[in-house]
């Protein structure tokens, strides 16, 4: 019996097209797969499609879209043995870069069918509100404070047209006008304060920039980067430092390895480049929670 490959496809992704998906499906058929293409039509739909696809016991699920689409699919198949591959079609495709997956169509699909899946550890954010608690898994990072507010304010229409520029513009607007509030974080039992934080599960951020360079999906730890300055010139200096890979040398940047982080207050939170909501929250790790196809060839 031929194995089923489920392609979960976000047609709103920046570089997505029906023609590309048709070519990917045909390539998979030539490799011996039965193929189904499942199109998303709203935020959160990819997760529901992933859960539904598991009922048909696919041999492979492919998330075709940006990092946000991939995150939704991850949350639908976490703690299963079904391997996930990525077909990058988003704005920055950070996870593809982290895994060494080619960003061209045929390179990505070839990787999906010729590379062995590996168990990876994920980050978990548990947000707490009057309605109760909710947990979301992430592959790349959780951004707290300014980073979360920047993602919250990104124009969807501008993102479709300009890609990364939409994030840059939102960031500059927030640096110019956002009043930062002090964040209180409890990291492995020790209290810290800062004005913005990145909690990394992977090394890359926003492309090939590395805010948490030691973080890895193959390690169950988190790495936390705390930015302690609040003035505009501090924020611009941090941005320049990240671009140059020098931010960890700054006296007012703290870099820590951790297993659990408690975020107090009501700061904005983003995960994997998509807005999540508000603190308070607890961030931890889930060891070996996902089977993920990487860029390593058989």
UniProtKB/TrEMBL annotation:
Pfam annotation, one family: DAGK_cat
A GO BP entry: phospholipid biosynthetic process
Gene Ontology cellular component terms for the protein in this record: plasma membrane
Keyword Lipid metabolism found: yes
Membrane-crossing segments per the record: none
Molecular function GO terms recorded: ATP binding; kinase activity; metal ion binding
SUPFAM superfamilies per UniProt: NAD kinase/diacylglycerol kinase-like
Requisite cofactors: Mg(2+)
Keywords, alphabetical: ATP-binding, Kinase, Lipid biosynthesis, Lipid metabolism, Magnesium, Metal-binding, Nucleotide-binding, Phospholipid biosynthesis, Phospholipid metabolism, Transferase
Domain DAGKc: 1-129
InterPro entries: ATP-NAD_kinase_N, Diacylglycerol/lipid_kinase, Diacylglycerol_kinase_cat_dom, Lipid_Phosphate_FormReg, NAD/diacylglycerol_kinase_sf, YegS/DAGK_C
Identification of the protein by name: DAGKc domain-containing protein
Record lineage: Bacteria, Pseudomonadati, Nitrospirota, Nitrospiria, Nitrospirales
């Amino acid at each position: 019996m031929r194995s089923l490959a489920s392609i979960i496809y976000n047609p709103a992704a920046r570089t997505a097209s029906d023609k590309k998906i048709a070519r990917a499906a045909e390539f998979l058929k030539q490799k011996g797969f039965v193929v189904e293409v499942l199109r998303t039509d709203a935020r959160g739909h990819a997760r529901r499609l992933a859960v539904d696809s598991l009922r048909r016991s696919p041999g492979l699920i492919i998330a075709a879209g940006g990092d946000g689409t991939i995150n939704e699919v991850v949350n639908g198949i976490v703690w299963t043995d079904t391997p996930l591959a990525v077909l990058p079609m988003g704005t920055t495709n950070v996870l593809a870069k982290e895994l060494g997956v080619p960003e061209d169509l045929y390179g990505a699909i070839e990787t999906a069918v010729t590379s062995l899946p590996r168990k990876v550890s994920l980050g978990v954010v548990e947000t707490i509100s009057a309605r109760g608690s909710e947990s979301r898994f992430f592959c790349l990072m959780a951004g707290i404070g300014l980073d979360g507010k920047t993602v919250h304010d990104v124009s969807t229409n501008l993102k479709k047209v300009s890609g990364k520029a939409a994030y840059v513009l939102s960031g500059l607007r927030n640096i110019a006008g956002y009043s930062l509030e002090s964040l209180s974080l409890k990291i492995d039992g020790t209290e810290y304060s800062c004005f913005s934080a990145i909690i990394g599960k992977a090394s890359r951020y926003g492309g090939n920039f590395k805010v948490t360079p030691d973080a890895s999906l193959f390690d169950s730890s988190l790495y936390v980067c705390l930015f302690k300055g609040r003035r505009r010139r501090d924020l611009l200096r941090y941005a320049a430092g990240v671009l140059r890979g020098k931010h960890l040398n700054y006296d007012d940047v703290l870099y820590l390895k951790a297993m659990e982080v408690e975020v107090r207050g009501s700061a904005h939170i983003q995960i994997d480049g998509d807005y999540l909501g508000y603190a308070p929250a607890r961030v931890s790790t889930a060891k070996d929670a996902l089977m993920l196809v990487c860029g390593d060839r058989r």
